[in-house]
Amino acid sequence: MRSFSSFALALTLMVSSLSYAQSVSPTSSDAATPTTANAAVDTAATIKSAATSTTPICGIEHLVRCIEDLGEDEKGMLTSPLRLKPQDAYWLAPVGIATGMAIQYDAAAQQQLGVDQSRMDTASNISLIGEFWIAGGESTAIYFVGLAKKDPKLAETGRLAAEAILDSGTVTAVVKVSTNRERPYQGNGNGDFWQTPSTGWSWDSSFPSGHATASMALARVVAGEYPKWYIAGSAYGLAETVSICRVLARDHFPSDVIVGQTIGFLAGSYVLNHRALYRPGKKGAVARMLHTVTPVVDPVSQSYGASIRIPIGQ
Question: Distance between CA atoms of 117 and 242, rounded to whole angstroms?
Fold first, then answer.
């Protein structure tokens, strides 16, 4: 119970970041969603406005602006609990419950997997694509390819992905140090929290997964900029593969990757809503469906679930 209460607090910070991100800034394309005009027209107007703006955009020619953007991101995300609203409970409760349940079954899940060195080595090698530095390199490569092709949207995708990875990486590092959780192969294998080894608090503790964080931050931005099902599906599929492999490699517990993905998703949402200029204004089918999810709690039967209204034809 001690671990559950502490992570409920940590998740409050993470989920509230998404809530704050949804209260988009003037550069957010979602703010221009259809009420009086076509979404494509709104997006074009946003791009035109940005082109005539005197405010520099983060990039290779304006590195100082990049540092300023990162500072603004961290300030907005870390102070977001001050802007919590009652409706945030709709997302905070399910995420908190899912994480709490995962923590309770973490050790049992790893025991059921057992120790298979061949599987562990293969999974560990695959998960390298989600390493913080590698994911950052992937986003940087996307940025420079966009510049070379003179494709501002592609360049923006790489730039925002790198920004989201850095933002989420900072939050993940703070949580790692503050929880100092043992990895599956350490101690008694139960993933105990707040352990103090002889070397002191560790930046590389188990909770949450940095690989899951970085890969999901990258996937969120790519899917947000290019919401076609095959692009979004590939991006999220790659992120999920990384997370699953971290568990199969016995480097993390299931709850580690759940919270890591949450942080990455929220950071990606934040930068998309506050920085994106070329993101499509019209929400995709998946995004519309997510907004129709309503948590369902039945105290009598002690059951939890959710109802979904499928927005067909919208």
Answer: 18
pLDDT digits (tens, 9 = 90+) for 221-269: 999 999 999 999 999 999 999 999 999 999 999 999 999 999 999 999 9
Segments of the chain assigned E as strands: 293-298, 303-308
CA neighbours closer than 13 Å in the CB half-sphere of residue 52: 5
**pLDDT tens sequence across 180-212:** 899 998 888 888 888 766 555 667 899 999 999
- pTM for the full predicted model: 0.73
**CA–CA gap between residue 22 and residue 16 (Å, rounded):** 10
Q: Give the right CATH number for 2-283 from 1.10.8, 2.40.50, 1.20.144, 1.20.140.
A: 1.20.144
Closest CA to 106 of 204, 176, 198, 209: 209
d(CA 292, CA 276): 24
